[in-house]
Amino acid sequence: MVQFKKSLSGAIYMKNSKMKWLLLIGVLSVLLVAVIAFSKRRNVYYLQAKKGDVLEAIYGLGKVETDEVFELKIGVMGNVKSLFVNEGDFVKKGQRMINFENIGAFFAPFSGTITSAEYKDGELVSPQVPVLRLENLDKKYIQVSLEQEAALRVRPGQQAKIVFQSLSGGTILGRVERVYPKNGEFIARINVDTIDSHVLPGMTADVVIEVGSKKDVVLIPIKAISSGQVIRRRNGKKEKIDVVTGHTDGLWSELVEGDILLTDELLVKGKK
User: Fold this and answer.
1) Which element (helix H / strand E) includes 36?
2) Is residue 83 included in any domain, yes or no?
C-alpha cells in the first residue's frame, strides 16, 4: 500500500513537471513570436510619394590621361653616348634629348615634360625597350572605366562633373567625347576645358556623368519597390500596386505608370 502511494505521488509529480515545462515552452514561444513581430514592425516604415526633379547619373572613378605621349625605343642594340635630359625636365620641340653611339641623336617631337628616363650615359639599350617618355601635360583629359549597364546609357555630349577630393576649387565641368571598348573594359573619354596645372596624369577623381533628367514629376522611393510593385496605404487600406519607373537618382524614381497619389503612403522595409 505504501509503495502504491509512493508510485502515485511520483506519477503526479512527473505529470505536474511535464505540464510546467509545456507551459514554459508555450510562454517562450508566444514571447518569441511577439519579439519577431515587433522587430519586423520596427524595420518597416512609410514614405509618401512626392513631386520634384530627378537627375539620373552614372558614378565612376576617373583617371587623368594626356593626349600627347612620345615613347622612345630603338630598333637595334645601342649604347647611350650622351643623355641631355632628366626626369621632370621641360623640353621644347626640337630640343636634343639623347645621343646613341652609331645611331645618332633624337629630338623632342613636341614641347613637354620628361616623365621617364631609364638609362644613363654609357649604358647598353636593348631593341624595343622604352628609353625616354615625353608627355604634354597641357593636353589632359579624364578616362573612366564603366560597368556594362552604365556604358549602355552613356552618350557623347553628356555633361560630366569631376571632383578632385584634395583639390580646392570645387567641381570641374566636362563632356563625354566618346565611349569605346578597351582590353575587356568599357571606357568613357571626358574632355575638360581647363584642369589645374597641379593635376598630373595618373591622378584620380570622382566623376558623375549626367545621363538623364526630368522636372516636376511624381517620385517614389526606390526602397519601396519590389519586383515592380509597391505596397500602398490609402485611407488605412493596404494594397499591392504595379508600377513602372523611369529616371532614378539612386534614392527616388520617376513614376511612369501606377495608381499612386501624392497623399498615398508607401511601405518601405528596413531602418530609416
Assistant:
1) helix 2-42
2) yes
Is 222 found in the same domain as 121? Answer: no
Same-domain check for residues 157 and 254: yes
Same domain, 102 and 194: no
The grid coordinates listed for 238 are 493596404
**Which sign, positive or negative, has the C-alpha torsion 251, 257, 258, 263?**
positive
pTM: 0.64
- The Cα–Cα gap between 43 and 238 comes to 17
CATH of the domain at 149: 2.40.30.170
Local confidence pLDDT in tens for the 272 residues of the chain: 444 444 545 555 455 666 666 666 766 666 666 545 444 455 788 999 999 988 888 899 999 999 999 999 999 999 999 999 999 999 999 999 999 998 999 999 999 999 999 999 999 999 999 999 999 999 999 999 999 989 999 999 999 999 988 777 678 899 999 999 999 999 999 999 888 888 899 999 999 999 888 889 999 999 999 999 999 999 999 999 999 998 887 788 899 999 999 999 999 987 66
Q: Which residues contact 53 (CB under 8 A, 6 or more apart)?
A: 213, 214, 215, 216, 217
